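Q: Please design a sequence for this.
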């Protein structure tokens, strides 16, 4: 039951990535939310919040319409097949909406995003020393060609960073492959490791991992909101304004072809990365709401609507009967 609105400008935006049946997945080491826990969390939200639709948030921003008290918006990043298999049926059952942000190249060209390759490499190799040995060999082999730093200089980072949720080896591997190594070289390393430990058939893997156009249409017809997450899933803050514009335009052409994301539309920043020129590009393209990875409850009276913060699924209980509203704080990358 929707509570009477008092016009609160606050909205809790929850971020999800992988949601799958962990008892059956071929990758039990993948950092994913179990589908049973997801159902428990949705029941919890239904008890404590008013789950709103993206259209309500867009209207609250553009037409100053009021949001219900304890408004909560569900967002799902990266266009995973998980979302049509495990998320959509649950949301459908309860008559609530999720907003799904799809990286267009991954879902339309059957290419696996580097960030996903890294997740599956890590989930496929339990002894992380093996990956480190391969990385060392590649650093040596390509040092001159890619003008790399010395091996020792990189390995120094192995002890430099600790994290609550990952071992130092995992933190190091992610850091090297996500940002430390020069872009062309880190793509090469990621590809070599993905082919060696996960699969040589990237296209089939992509078909299994991501939604396709029919899935997206089915979810759209079922009342879900499908939003833009860029075309190539780049760190958009690193591109020129012209390339930022192309990224946004190409993603909208695809989505509008499926009758999704009409203007004003909602956007989700890949890796939560943005800069001033990207905000201008988005505004000009007709974007009214965009979500980041900053951790907080959003307040549309004080936050820039193009920079709304979110909370992670791990910040909330996974069962209906839990009484505490928030458990811990983390952002999954
Ligand atoms: Zn993403």
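A: Design:
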């Amino acid at each position: 039951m929707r509570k009477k609105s008092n016009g609160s400008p606050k909205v809790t935006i929850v971020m999800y990535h992988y949601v799958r049946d962990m008892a059956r997945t071929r990758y039990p080491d993948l950092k994913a939310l179990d589908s049973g826990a997801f159902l428990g969390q949705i029941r919890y939200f239904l008890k404590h919040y008013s789950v709103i639709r993206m259209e309500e948030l867009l209207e609250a921003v553009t037409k100053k319409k009021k949001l219900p008290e304890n408004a909560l918006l569900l967002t799902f990043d990266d266009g995973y097949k998980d979302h049509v298999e495990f998320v959509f049926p649950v949301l459908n059952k309860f008559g609530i909406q999720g907003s799904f942000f799809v990286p267009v190249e991954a879902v339309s060209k059957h290419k696996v995003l580097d960030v996903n390759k890294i997740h599956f490499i890590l989930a496929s190799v339990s002894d992380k020393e093996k990956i480190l040995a391969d990385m060392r060999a590649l650093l040596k082999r390509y040092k001159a060609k890619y003008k790399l730093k010395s091996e020792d200089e990189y390995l120094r980072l192995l002890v430099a960073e600790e994290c609550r949720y990952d071992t130092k080896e995992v933190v190091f591997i992610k850091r090297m492959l996500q940002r430390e190594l020069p872009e062309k070289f880190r793509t090469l390393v990621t590809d070599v490791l993905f082919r060696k430990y996960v699969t040589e058939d990237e296209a089939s893997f992509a078909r299994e991992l991501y939604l396709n156009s029919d899935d997206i249409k089915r979810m759209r017809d079922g009342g879900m909101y499908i939003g833009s997450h860029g075309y190539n899933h780049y760190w958009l803050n690193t591109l020129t304004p012209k390339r930022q514009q192309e990224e946004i335009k190409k993603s909208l052409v695809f989505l509008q072809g499926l009758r999704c994301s009409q203007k004003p539309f909602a956007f989700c920043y890949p890796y939560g990365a943005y800069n001033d020129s990207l905000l201008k590009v988005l505004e000009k393209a007709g974007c009214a709401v965009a979500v980041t990875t900053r951790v907080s409850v959003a307040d549309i009276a004080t936050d820039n609507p193009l920079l709304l913060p979110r909370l992670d699924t791990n910040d909330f209980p996974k069962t209906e009967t839990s009484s505490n509203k928030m458990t811990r704080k983390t952002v999954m990358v």
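Q: Thanks. Anything notable?
A: The chain has a mean pLDDT of 92. The pocket of zinc ion is lined by residues 77-78, 229, 233, 270 (CB under 6 Å).
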